[in-house]
Design brief:
Elements lengths: L2 H6 L6 H12 L3 H18 L15 H10 L6 H10 L3 H20 L7 H11 L5 H9 L12 H10 L3 H13 L3 H7 L4
Length: about 200
């Protein structure tokens, strides 16, 4: 299936028509299609949950912390790629590294007030089509996005500028102080570290 076809099937409009078109284009077995769909549904049920917003944020990187970003920052466009990683990367250490890099990427862009206009392309097409299933591969992919493009990862200079010129810096500092008093300040420091 071509990238143009995959792009076409991302819309939430006319789902029945899209499924019919998908079946005629890819000709999967019905049982295979249902099994694939079911496996993703099970992964979603097991790992993706907005209820993490009611719990303490874990200190270690992983899917639980990424859930906080997905639902706390309304970044649900991450979900297709996260499910792809959960299904296709069985090494838990590698998964955590991928989720650490994703977390850092999103937080850096947030601090730098970068646009998220093309997140759906990145997380539902580019990373999945590119079969990016290692932390090293993800970091390389994100680092190779031209700095002038909307999806580029902010470098350390841009991150410092973002901190120094953010309207919400005082609120962030207050939050950091509160986190420090709760013993959670290192989460913020680790959150921003890509390297």
């Amino acid at each position: 299936m071509s990238s143009a076809d995959k792009q076409r099937f991302r819309s939430a409009e006319n789902l029945f028509g899209q499924y019919k078109d998908y079946f005629s284009l890819t000709n999967p077995t019905k049982m295979g299609f249902v099994q694939d769909l079911t496996s993703y549904a099970k992964l979603y049920r097991e790992f993706i949950s907005p209820s993490v917003l009611d719990e303490e944020v874990p200190k270690d990187y992983g899917i639980e912390r990424l859930n906080v970003i997905i639902f706390g920052l309304d970044s649900t466009t991450l979900i297709p790629y996260v499910l792809f990683v959960l299904k296709n990367q069985t090494d838990e250490t590698e998964r955590k590294e991928i989720f650490r890099i994703l977390e850092s990427y999103i937080m850096r862009r947030l601090i730098c007030r970068s646009t998220n206009d093309n997140y759906s392309d990145l997380f539902s097409l580019q990373l999945i089509n590119g079969q990016i299933l290692t932390g090293e591969g993800l970091l390389e992919y994100l680092s190779n996005i031209e700095a002038s493009l909307s999806l580029a990862i902010p470098n350390n200079s841009e991150l410092m500028y973002g901190f120094q010129n953010s309207v919400w810096l005082i609120s962030a500092l207050k939050a950091f102080c509160i986190l420090s008093s709760l013993g959670l300040a290192m989460i913020v420091v680790r959150l921003l570290s890509v390297d």
